[in-house]
Amino acid sequence: GGLGDVLGGLPPAMAANGHRVMTISPRYDQYKDAWDTEVTVELKVGDKTETVRFFHCYKRGVDRVFVDHPLFLEKVWGKTASKIYGPTAGVDFKDNQLRFSLLCQAALVAPRVLNLNSSKYFSGPYGEEVVFVANDWHTALLPCYLKAIYKPEGIYKTARAAFCIHNIAYQGRFAFEDFALLNLPNEFKSSFDFIDGYDKPVKGRKINWMKAGILESDKVLTVSPYYAEELVSSAEKGVELDNIIRKTGIQGIVNGMDVQEWNPLTDKYTTVKYDASTVADAKPLLKEALQAEVGLPVDSDIPVIGFIGRLEE
């Protein structure tokens, strides 16, 4: 969806501006061009110590790093058609908090331990002079661990964390006693503390990952100036986090478009290629092809209206 599009297109645009850019994602699959770096780290998750490996590929100026652990890989293994976030829509996997805690901790380790030399402009580990951009609730623990674990040790002293909200409706609300799973000091409890009127996953008092991500990061961002206004306009539009966002402030930066991926001259999904000079000739032909494919009357004079948006209950 939109988050995938941003993580695909924004990093190469930042790299083109001269930044050294790394993305860190779970390794949900055997990505064919991502190779084992053979770098492993041990991380405390819940009451266990887990070992993760880092896989890596370099594309369009970006270090793409994948966190390898059975918690990620076994969920989507083979042809089980398992979902990434839960067994069915709207249901979390039981171990989601552990999985995403693992991702956040691995993301904090990666810039210091991975010795990456794919770029002709940069070599070696990224080091500590970095900005972390955490996207949506799954990565909301990153600014918390940065403050709780690293800064007191004098590590990442100048590093900053931005938290970007792509969809306020999904916040990572869990049972309040689950705070213990996160291995954070008690002074972080208030940042997670959240009360709503819903029975799921438990009644009454909960923890809310997104609330903590908003409060503990240095900057809160979202995907357009209009969405930023919308999120603070009412409790309904801000899905009960509007007051928190008013307190921290939020900046909307409109999602751009990856002009390499969405280039009609090189689009492998269309039969007729076009650019600005041939668009008027190409579009009627493409419209007829679309009409034929979806079983509409083929008529170049009938308008076809496309809508890109969310389709959910």
UniProtKB/TrEMBL annotation:
Pathway: Glycan biosynthesis; starch biosynthesis. Keywords: Glycosyltransferase, Starch biosynthesis, Transferase. Coiled coil: none annotated. Residues 1-247 form the Starch synthase catalytic domain. Gene3D superfamilies: Glycogen Phosphorylase B. The keyword Glycosyltransferase applies. One of its GO terms (biological process) is starch biosynthetic process. Pfam families: Glyco_transf_5 (PF08323). GO terms for molecular function: glycosyltransferase activity. This is Granule-bound starch synthase. The lineage of its organism: Eukaryota, Viridiplantae, Streptophyta, Embryophyta, Tracheophyta.
